[in-house]
Amino acid sequence: MEIPVATNGMEVVYRKPSTLTETPFHYCPGCGHGVAHRLLMEVVEEMGIQEKTIGVAPVGCSVFAYHYMNIDMQEAAHGRACAVATGIKRVMPDRFVFSYQGDGDLAAIGTGETIHTVNRGENILVVFINNAIYGMTGGQMAPTTLLGMVTSTTPYGREQPVMGFPLKITDLIAQLPGSYYVTRQAVHTPATVRKTKKAFRTAFEYQQHKKGTCFVEVVSNCPSGWKMTPVESNEWMEKNMFPAYPLGDLKVPHPILSQV
Length: 260
Description:
By secondary structure, this protein is α/β, with parallel strands linked by helices.
């Protein structure tokens, strides 16, 4: 991506990609959704695939993604984004197709669609934003909520005998033969932002290989749902979320298999 030079002679180190609209984000201050949106659209612009990319967003905090991403977008019912993305990709196999889903959507009501989509090896990218809570609907416990974590429906913390263990859905996805590239990243520091952008780029490039499903989890915060400031939520995420959901690649293609 070319870096333009301002008229006053100063170098411009960043500009908003043309793949984002002029609509301001509605996300709460400190939320990771906006950063993830920007990174996805930067990759789409840099790869020159804006006219060939289709995103699918279901119910959740990302339900208004079509307001921000200047690409073809399709809404899906709660939990059904993987199924909708599958239909789009099968009808238009030359398109770059991705779903953008939260943990309450993908790992709860959409668990069946997610597991079977990956098990079939559908040639799509699944972007999974994991903040361990239902952010949009009131901060309820999600499948990914940590043990002891306080939510609006677990005011004394999540208890394993009653609510079970946190569901590490990405670890399960990595075990399925239909998954091709599976990674877990974050967007709260410059270093993690760079790694997540690289993961998005890698996933889109792998989609051209037609080898299976690419799955990128982004461990994020929810300052409003967690009842914390943005800084506090990032610190809490590092201390509590990362040990439960460690960052890094869970499944990478064999070099021979990754050849087109």
